Amino acid sequence: MDTLGIFLAQAFSRSTAKTHLPEIRKVELSYNARQGVSVLPFLQTAPEAEPFPGFLAPLDIFSILNDYFVFLNPDFESLSSWDRYCKLPKTTRSEKILAEFYRILRVYFLVCTHQEGRIEEKPEEGLIILNLPETSVVYTAHLAPIALEILCSAVTYYLFSLKRPDPEAYVEAMLSSYYKDVADHISFFCDEGSNIYQFQMAFHMNRHLRLIGGNAPIQMDTEFVFFELEDFHQDALRYPIDIYFRIEKQLYVVPVEALTNNKLPRIELERWKAKEVYHG
Q: How far is CA 85 from CA 96, 257, 263, in A?
């Protein structure tokens, strides 16, 4: 039984968050090359529910994320939300970022659900002030409203990526882009820990649009994989392309942002192997 698939289907069906997910389109990378990888199965995007008005969507996403962590580790169910955060896996960059998303949503949840919690909108400053001072720990966050939408989008993207071929390095790059945009819109944050963490990005990933193509001609030598791209496709800002290709039946997905002069060191190929959990 595909229990993860069942969990994700239920999560998406109940989500009310307004999300900003990548738009995925097919692109032909060469009109002369023979057919490569068929990308049609990978064009599916995450289902979007009708957004719920007001402040409830981040609470919904926090609940879904809580359920996801309990799904992975049933022992988490008996833990407080802070203990849960402390025990979350933080080995990979993606795990660390996901934990920080949970931490930010947790403060929103605590402020919204505590009788002493206060939410103040300051449209002239473009801020929402979250404040819960009358407890043993002061919970406070000053953030732009768009930060909450991006935060909900990031969690939704991550859960949907679990059923896609996106390699771990790809998911990490996308989450890093989401996280930077969230952190840039938080001017103050306080909970049991220190300030929210800052992560150095290996490269900037376009999280708004992805163009996927499976017929780029490639060549290899002992050091590099070379991708033959049309001149106009070499502008990564205008054409944020994901290149799907196979080497000895192994599927790889490489974002063009990870290339230097249209080439990728062969030593990095392992990072861009498509996930085997993908079921189409």
A: 10, 32, 39
**What is the spatial order of strands in the sheet that 118-122 belongs to?**
118-122, 127-132, 139-143, 186-190
Give the pLDDT band (50/70/90) at residue 214. confident
Q: With residue 122 as reference, give the H or E element that holds it.
A: strand 118-122
- Give one DSSP letter per residue of 70-106, joined into a string: HHH-GGGGGS-HHHHHHHS--SSHHHHHHHHHHHHHH
- Predicted TM-score (pTM) above 0.70: yes
Cβ–Cβ contacts within 10 Å for residue 54, how many? 8
- Per-residue pLDDT tens for 133-185? 878 889 999 999 999 999 999 999 999 898 889 999 999 999 999 999 999 99
Per-residue pLDDT for 62 more than 70?
yes
Taking the CA atoms of residue 265, residue 267, residue 268 and residue 273 in that order, the dihedral angle to the nearest 10 degrees is 120
DSSP secondary-structure letter at 34?
A: P
248 in the Ramachandran plot: left (φ > 0), alpha (ψ -120 to 50) or beta? Answer: left
Q: Which amino acid is at 154?
A: A
Tokens 């955060």, residue? 85
